[in-house]
Structures are given as C-alpha cells and as structure tokens.
C-alpha cells in the first residue's frame, strides 16, 4: 500500500482550520490536508491500490474508503495512520490521553457500539427526534452530516446548514488576543479556548480538543450558537423563552403562567432562575473543584459567585455531541442513553479517559455512583 507524502507542520493551526486548503486558512500560508489524503483519481498509483487497507476497488466520490465514516475513521480512530504534528483527535474510543470535548462514538470496556448512547452514524434513513418541516429522513447519516470535510469558518468545521436549515447558522470561534472571530466579526465569539492572551495556548494540537479547554461565551440566538445549530436537525427542541415549542418567557418562568414545556437551552440564566426560585445560584457557585461544574454558556467568561451567575444551560450542558461513550466496565447499557453527561459522587464524568480514573458506574452499588441527577442538582439543588 502506498501513502502519498503527508505534509507536517509545526505551526499551530486555529481550531476549525484543519481540512481547509491553505488559501482559505487565516494566515493563508499553512496547508493542512492534501486532496490525495482522501481522494484517488483512478484508485491506483504505481500499480498499487490507493484505497486505505489496500483492496482493489473504487468508490463513489473518488474517496479512498468504502464509506465516508470509514474514511474519517482511518485517521480519527486510534490514529491508525500514525500521524503526528498534528495527531488526528480520536473520536471513536479515545485512547490518546485527553478528555474528548465531543465524547466518544464507542463505549469502552468492553468496546461496544451502543446505538442508544451515540449519534448513529453509518446508518441510513434516520429522522432526528424533534425534526420538523421537510427534508427527512437523512439518507446516509455520517460525519459529513455535521462537519464540512473541506473545512470552513465555523467551529470544528461545523456545517453552516445542518439538516434542513434554510439559512446559515454561525458557530464561530476566537482566533487571537485582539478578539477576532473566525467569521470576521469581533469578540465575543461563540467558542473560546481557555487562554485569552496572545495566540491561545489551547490552539495546539490535541490540547485544543480537551473538554476543559473549550468554553462557550456568546449567548445563543435564532441564527447562531450551539443550540441553534443542533436545532438544524432537532428543530423542536431548540428556541428562546416564549417560543411556542419551548414555553417560558425571555426572563424564564416568572411564576405568572409562563411555565417551560421543554428545558431552556439558550437564553435564560441562573441569575434569572434564582430570582424565579427555580435554581440555586449559591449551590452552583460553590461547586468544587470548579472543573467538575457542568458546561454552560458563560457570557461574562467569569466564574459564578453566590451573587452573580450569568451562565445559561444549553445542549452541551447535558449531552455530548458524538456520544456518551467510555463508560467503564459494569455500567448497564440500558440506562446509558441519549448521549448524556453523567457525573459520579466524586465529580468524575462518564467519558473520563482511562480505566485508572475513579469513575463509579451508574449501576454500581456505591452510594457515589454516577447519575444524571448529579448534573441537574448542580443548578437546581432540589
Ligand atoms: C489523512 C488523515 C485525516 C482524514 C482522512 C480525516 N481527518 Fe480530520 N483531522 C486530521 C487531523 C490530523 C486533524 C487535527 C488537526 C489539528 O490539530 O489542527 C483533524 C481535525 C479534524 C477536525 C477538527 C478541526 C478543528 O476544529 O480543529 C474535524 C471536525 C475533522 N478532522 C473531521 C474529519 C472528517 C469529518 C473526516 C472525514 C470526511 C476527516 N476528518 C478525515 C486528519 C484527518
Ligand atoms: C478529509 C478528507 C478530504 C479531503 C482532504 C478532501 N476531500 Fe473532497 N471530499 C471528501 C468527501 C468525504 C467527499 C464526499 C464524497 C461523497 O459524497 O461520496 C468529497 C467530495 C469532493 C467533491 C465533490 C463534491 C463537492 O464538494 O464538490 C470534490 C469536487 C472534491 N471533494 C474535491 C476535493 C479537492 C480538490 C480537495 C483538495 C483541495 C479535496 N476534495 C480534499 C473528502 C475530502
Ligand atoms: C445532521 C442532523 C443532526 C444534527 C446537526 C444533530 N443531530 Fe442529534 N440526532 C440526529 C439523528 C438522525 C438522530 C437519531 C439517530 C440517532 O440516535 O443517532 C439524533 C439523535 C440524537 C440524540 C439521541 C441519541 C440516541 O441514541 O438516543 C441526542 C441526545 C442528540 N441527537 C443530540 C444532539 C445534539 C446535542 C446536537 C448538537 C450538538 C445534535 N444532536 C445535532 C441528527 C442530528
Ligand atoms: C451530530 C453531529 C455530528 C456528527 C454526526 C459528527 N460530529 Fe464531530 N463534532 C460535532 C460537534 C458539535 C463537535 C464539537 C463538540 C464540542 O466541542 O463539545 C464535534 C467535534 C469533533 C472533533 C473535535 C474533537 C472533539 O472531541 O471535540 C472531531 C475531530 C470530529 N468532531 C470529527 C468527527 C468525525 C470523524 C465524525 C464521524 C466519525 C463526526 N465528527 C461526526 C458534531 C458531529
Ligand atoms: C446549567 C444549569 C442547569 C442544568 C444542568 C439543568 N438545569 Fe433545569 N433549568 C435551568 C434554568 C436556568 C432553568 C430556567 C428556570 C426559570 O425559568 O426560572 C431551568 C428550568 C428547568 C425546569 C422548568 C422549571 C420551571 O419552573 O418552568 C425543570 C423542570 C428543569 N429545569 C429540570 C432539570 C433537570 C431534570 C435537569 C437534569 C436533567 C436540569 N434541569 C439541568 C438550569 C439548569
Ligand atoms: C437539562 C438537560 C438537557 C438539555 C439542556 C438538553 N437536553 Fe436533550 N435530553 C436530556 C435528557 C435527560 C434526555 C432523555 C429524554 C428526556 O428526558 O426527554 C434528552 C433527550 C434528547 C434527545 C433524544 C430524544 C429521543 O426521542 O430519543 C435529543 C435528540 C436531544 N435530547 C437533543 C437536545 C438538543 C438538540 C438540545 C439543545 C437544543 C438538548 N437536547 C438540550 C437532557 C437535556
């Protein structure tokens, strides 16, 4: 089997740039992947197969694997081509030693594909729960349903029109200390990496995919942000306060006949919920270690205090984008569903990376076992 020479660069690449051709990157100078790492014109070079794995076959789209998912997995599962600088992040069953922001498509120990707990890619004719309008089912659900394989200016190359959206949905990310965002606007950007001075340190390979290094700053709206983006497919589950599919009001459930009918996902803060008597701001602010606090959109980019918490719950407070895999031995798959974030009594997450982590599975007899309620209680403390 022949591999075309890969181009390795030490230059840090901005989040979202990888896969783009150099003319379309921020600096305009750094080539990342070349066409021939994914495409073959004839299926053959030097008389040998160009298909990853070496079979003599040709595939539609001129790609070097039988399916799009298999092509992406060639690099994004266990770094099977042995690339370095940069190393492809592992989205399947991450063994590369960082905590994958998007979670995992496969569960670990034993390694299983639990369809109830992952986005069921590589399947045909799927209709997303909460989908509305036409355009369903999705004929072939793959990585490309969500990511643009040729790169773009959205965070993680997320498609600007997922599902049946008819206008662009922006999820931009911060490029530098000046505060430029990837779509040419200025800060606040939807996604920041932890360091705000200079080129964020978080922009280095693998480190920038670590869950704790990815933060969400800008409040979502009807045209931007993660909740709106997920809503490109799960339309009915997304919206602002007072939308008919959501209930509530722009100040939350103010106890005057404005109850929520779906959980708020983008524009109601813990401050408001505390005033309304539906969340416990002091409890939220007091969580230790702070790294075990669940994700929320945080417009002021500052840790909450008992007197001020502008954080807003959103889809990634409760779900992983890919799947909730990496559960450790013992957890019962039937109660491990919906890509949910689960937290055990020690603040350890269900996707913690290695068996040496002390995650206590949800079906354990221990009183500290993982539960979704531990997540709810961080904000609600009922
Ligand atoms: C030849 C190897 C290779 C193949 C094939 C490949 N990738 Fe990648 N991809 C990489 C590497 C390496 C990175 C890490 C870049 C970095 O750290 O800057 C990456 C990064 C990414 C990222 C993160 C971009 C960001 O925001 O930093 C996404 C999303 C992604 N790939 C999706 C895909 C999808 C979808 C496919 C299949 C269509 C695919 N990749 C196929 C090598 C590959
Ligand atoms: C990370 C892998 C990857 C890289 C790198 C890549 N492509 Fe693609 N490309 C794909 C996949 C996957 C498809 C979709 C194939 C399908 O739909 O069956 C595709 C589709 C295409 C198509 C047809 C659809 C369209 O978008 O117009 C063209 C043309 C194309 N690629 C050209 C290129 C060129 C030129 C380059 C280099 C500048 C390139 N690709 C680099 C993965 C890649
Ligand atoms: C391109 C369309 C698309 C987008 C965008 C999308 N989803 Fe999905 N999602 C689906 C489909 C199709 C299913 C049903 C099949 C399955 O279970 O994977 C699904 C299922 C789910 C499930 C249930 C999983 C299960 O197995 O029961 C959750 C939870 C979910 N999505 C959350 C999200 C979140 C959060 C986002 C945004 C980060 C998102 N989705 C974005 C298409 C999409
Ligand atoms: C339902 C939509 C969806 C599908 C399908 C999907 N992704 Fe993602 N992916 C996302 C979102 C959203 C993020 C950012 C999540 C975050 O930061 O928490 C992401 C993040 C990533 C990253 C960055 C690493 C990380 O852990 O954050 C890579 C690489 C990636 N995806 C590759 C892939 C590949 C390869 C596939 C197919 C095997 C795929 N994705 C399928 C939505 C999707
Ligand atoms: C990151 C913080 C956060 C997390 C985590 C969270 N919520 Fe909420 N929740 C809120 C906020 C903020 C509101 C809006 C309350 C208001 O409008 O006054 C809310 C509203 C609600 C409501 C409606 C209250 C009403 O009076 O209309 C219910 C019920 C609810 N949440 C249950 C849950 C459950 C169950 C979980 C766990 C699966 C959960 N929440 C996780 C912050 C959170
Ligand atoms: C407060 C936590 C919370 C938030 C925020 C949240 N979800 Fe969920 N989600 C859940 C739970 C728990 C379930 C399990 C089913 C249920 O309770 O309705 C679920 C189930 C789902 C399902 C599967 C439904 C099915 O029929 O299998 C999808 C799809 C989904 N969520 C998408 C989203 C999207 C998209 C967002 C953001 C727009 C979002 N969720 C925000 C907690 C949450």
Roughly how many Å apart are the termini? 60 Å
Low confidence ranges:
1-10
Strand content: 5-15%
What is the domain tally? 1
General form:
globular
Rounded Rg? 21 Å
Helix count, DSSP H or I runs of 4 or more residues:
7
Order of helices and strands: EEHEEEHEEHHHHEH
Helix content: 10-25%
Mean pLDDT: 88
**DSSP strand count:** 8
How would you summarize this macromolecular structure in one to three sentences?
With 382 residues, this protein is low in regular secondary structure.
List the helices and strands and how they pair.
Layout: E1 44-45, E2 48-49, H1 68-76, E3 103-104, E4 123-126, E5 138-141, H2 143-146, E6 191-193, E7 214-216, H3 226-230, H4 270-276, H5 281-285, H6 315-318, E8 323-324, H7 373-380
Parallel strand pairs: 3-8
Antiparallel strand pairs: 1-2, 4-5, 6-7
Bound molecules: heme C (6 copies).
